[in-house]
Protein: ROK family protein
Amino acid sequence: MQRQYLSIDIGGTEIKSALIDHSGNIFEKNHTLTPRQKEEFFTKIFEIITPVLEKITAICVSVPGVVNSATGKVKFTGALGFMGTFNFASYIEARTHCPVYVGNDANCATLAEMWLGNLNGVHNGAVITLGTSVGGGIVINDQLLHGPHFQAGELSAMIINHDVTDPHYSTVGATTSAVKMIETIADVCGIADKEDGRRVFKEINPHNQVAWSLFESFCRRVAILILNLQTVMDLDRVLIGGGISAQHILVDEIKKQFRLLQQSDYRLRDDVTMPEIMAAKFGNEANLLGALYGLLLTIE
Structure:
């Protein structure tokens, strides 16, 4: 039997965990709500770890925030901002006497694709995760790009409209939220559950005029983001992640919008090569797998 590792994916709403072997086979998946207070958070983490501690080789964790994956120091952000900044890996190691790896969630999603997914064998690529905001992971010359401040891939902070004086309304995160797009279409189409993405795509797929216009505009913004990345990094492949990427029409429309952008200006046509754009392979399990791959790269 192969060695098993405990992988934990901490999200703003939910904490997922699983036992995974060295080959990426997943066992004993679990999930629980993410606590909103620091002490409750620590209690929950060790409720996950303690029952399996005797049968695991190491622990790997995916978290939202700025992460020094070499040391395990985390500046928690977003819904987990209340956790502050501290060495999360050392905290767990001291109480479990077990090796611990901690990685940024978007980077973990990218690592999963590099290991067993659609970036395997791709020398230069990126993962763009569409959700409440926009996450990113970048691969250059077969290496995940961290940057000296461990903030490479923070695509949501990119300003894309210099005519808007308030940066809050001109960033990728503010203008390219898949969740906001779904909510807006649900509202204008009279759908009661504003979070029902599947129901919203029943309006998008047959090209309901109002729904399609909003969806088309969203895909154009994603295409602009990819084009901007391409002008700087000249990537081979860009993957689209997040729950919405399961809808095939999304990637098709992003590709169409990228081509339309190129057709609109000879400089975009002549100076920018369209990368291969496709859906990421992994969905909800991406961060669990990527955290393990980050651990394996570290200890091996």
Notes: The mean pLDDT is 94.
